Amino acid sequence: xxxxEFDDIRAFLADEATHAGDLLRIARTxxxxxxxxxMREAVLRTHYLRLLTAAxxxxxxxxxxAPDPLAFVKHxxxxxxxxxxxxxxxxxxxxxxxxxxxxxxxLEEQTPQRPRGLRLRRCVGAHRALPR
Length: 132
Prior knowledge:
The protein is mainly alpha-helical. Helices cover 67% and strands 0% of the residues. The chain is built from 4 helices and no strands. The longest helix is centred in the N-terminal third of the chain and has 44 residues, at 20-63. The radius of gyration is 25 Å and the shape is elongated. The model has no long low-confidence stretch (mean pLDDT 84).
C-alpha cells in the first residue's frame, strides 16, 4: 500500500459518516494485504537464502580449488533467468555493482546526527470519543 492509500484510510476512519459495514470491509482488505505482504516476504527471504547459500558454496569451492567454483551461483542465477546475456549487459551490471558499492561506502561513512533543539510531537489522526 502506498502512503496516500494509508492517508485515505485514516481519513475514511475519521469520518463520522462511516458505517460499521464499511469498517469491516476495510479490515478484511487490510488483512488480505497483510497476508499477501507476509507471503511475498517469505518468498523473498527464500530467494535471498538460496542465493546466499550458493555464494557461500562458491567461495568454499574456490577455497578447495574446485574446477568450476561459480557453478552454484551460475545455477541459481540461471534458475531465475538472471545470467548476463551479452557484453553490454555485463558492463552495465559491473557499473551498477561499482555504483552500489560506492553508495554503501558513503552511507557507512556518514554518522547519523541527532536533531538539536526542541523535540516536536507528531499528531496523527483525528481525536474523537467512542460511543457509549
